[in-house]
Design a protein that fits this description.
Length: 299
Amino acid sequence: MMPDQKKAYLFAIAVILCWSTMPTAFKLTLQYIDFIQVLFLGSIVSTLVFFFIIVLQNKTRNLKLIKKRDLANAAIRGFLNPFLYYLVLLKAYSLLKAQEASTLNYFWPITLVLLSIPLLKQKISRVSILAVFISFIGIVIISTEGNIINLQFREPLGVALAVGSSIIWALYWILNMKDKNDEIIKLFLNFIFGSFYVFLSFLFFSENKSFTLPGIGGAIYIGVFEMGITYFFWLKALKYSTNTARVSNLVYISPFISLIIISLVLNEKILLATFIGLVFIVAGIILQYFSGKRKNSYG
């Protein structure tokens, strides 16, 4: 029988490999359908994936225990994710290079720390402030393509959306942590409401109502491997791991693998500024993580 920690690593690696393909999948799919169409199809597919998991885990009876308060919370979280988060992120991908959008979005762990101050009443240490500053330098390097002296942004709206998506994701994560209900049930409810919001956006704001076969295929892939089953795999990795850090630290590999896939599939020339900026962002995240860990170890 396979040890639990080995199972945790396998689930975590599966998640990392899936997430690493997403920047490329986003850009390829957006060549055929617009960002609202991608989210419309992707959110429906992911909702079906969550329902399928609920059935497999024999948790359909849990749906009968849902209270009005649970539905109200799901309506709020569903607005943040998948609706607003992916709407903003996919629009950013339509404006930026894949390497830029994917790397800037990776700022969310730092955003999570900043939002935890007012929302969770947590205090921020000097080390945490330094970590934020280091990651912010990385954002500036990527956004200006290395031209940090003149601060010339090639696509300021795209940069604002990519960084803004990290704020939305962090806010969603904080609200999700406060809800102690079953994770799969929460995800299913969130995505039902989110899919409804997306449907309204598609109905009133999508410029194109027709779908192409490659676009449908790409959206299904995104719905399954970005929004759907990867969430479940990640929960499994955390559940089986004897130490959360053992699998959480593996996530730092994902953006670097993404750059390789972007270069090979999209033929984007990976700028030195992108790589350096990514190193700064990840360095800030790691510094923040270990400063928090050291603080907790000393009480």
